[in-house]
Amino acid sequence: MEVAEAGEVLQRVANLRVWRRGHERAPHKPLLILLALGRLSQGGKRLCAYEDWEPGLCQLLEEFGTPRQSVHPEYPFWRLQTDQIWEVEADARLTRRSPQADPLKSELVKFRIRGGFTGPVYEALRRDPLLVKQVAQTLLLAHFPASLHEEILTTVGLDLESTIKRNRLGSFRGEVLSAYGHACAFCGYDVRLGSADLGLDAAHIMWHQAKGPDLAANGLACCSLHHRALDRGAISLSNELTILVSAHVYGGVKFDEHFVSLMGRPLRRPSLAASLPKAEYLEWHRREVFRPPPRDG
Hints:
Elements: H1 6-14, H2 28-41, E1 48-49, H3 50-64, H4 74-79, E2 86-89, H5 105-110, E3 114-117, H6 119-127, H7 129-143, H8 146-156, H9 171-179, E4 192-193, E5 196-197, E6 200-204, E7 219-223, H10 224-232, E8 235-237, E9 243-245, H11 255-258, H12 279-288
Antiparallel strand pairs: 1-3, 2-3, 4-5, 6-7, 8-9
Helix pairs in contact: 1-7, 2-3, 2-7, 2-8, 6-7
């Protein structure tokens, strides 16, 4: 079987045609590719029926995608073909609303339509574990904040063995932590080891992957727990800087302390007015990341 060049595969992944409208997120294609990489690394078949892809992709879209009333795994399954790394085996029986439209999801299931990496791309990935790692890293860095990388990899069954490095402006972290007095803006956690912060992060409100800037007004000092919760959409902020907790969050031990007790409380404000979170970043987070509705008691 023909084998694609590694550089060619990486270029196609880097140039992925992702739907865009303003700063809205559309992680459907990246998540499907990551799911396919996980299956490939575990010896899975190149082509699988749509209904075999659907449960895993639904889970990924619900957990790491944009909060919506419903998810549509059929969209990336069909549309990824345009990026020359995916193919779908389909015949003329599929009903199409127009030549450019997606087929009906019901018919993808009914006719057990199969899809997966093209032969040359599959062979390139199968023969080169480093390429699998590079493709996964490219997708994660381009579409998701670092706090979610490990969870996504675990969910799709990939182990990249090493931490993904990011080339980012080092001043952002320092400016944000200084603005909040080296304490979590949500809970006040401020533990240090010698002169270094321990488990305290500078989190972006509007993700870098959505063109969020490295400005203190787009940052929050967060303990590791509340950084993860912010990026997963478990917590957010109103424009008045009161804390929102998603109604989908629940738990037992420490749940009330770490989440319920935050509901409706004002954010711990930064020392400088210029570092106050801007409404445009907060609105993006509530629209694109937070899991509504907020808890009300």
